Amino acid sequence: AQRIMTQARSYQCDILLPEDLVVASHLEEKVASEVVDAEHIPHDKMALDVGPASLVRYYQALSQAKTIVWN
User: Fold this and answer.
1) What is the per-residue pLDDT for 13?
2) What is the pTM of this model?
3) Residue 69: alpha-carbon gap to chain centroid
4) Which of 28, 35, 36, 37 is least surrounded by CB atoms within 10 angstroms?
5) Alpha helices per DSSP H over 1-71
6) Measured between alpha carbons, how far is residue 50 from residues 6, 11, 21, 66 in Å?
């Protein structure tokens, strides 16, 4: 992963990783969830989606992008 990030920088390519995540104890409808920093996911939780700060960041980047590669 570090090699990919370094190579992307050399091509002036941004790889946007989430800064916050929606987490819950399990994937089930109506389960309690919370937003946490992407680097601090509690051991008893799983990441289910990107958080609101990440969504804003992605929106800003996508609205200005000329080319998008999605994987």
Assistant:
1) 87
2) 0.81
3) 15
4) 28
5) 2-10, 52-64
6) 23, 26, 4, 23
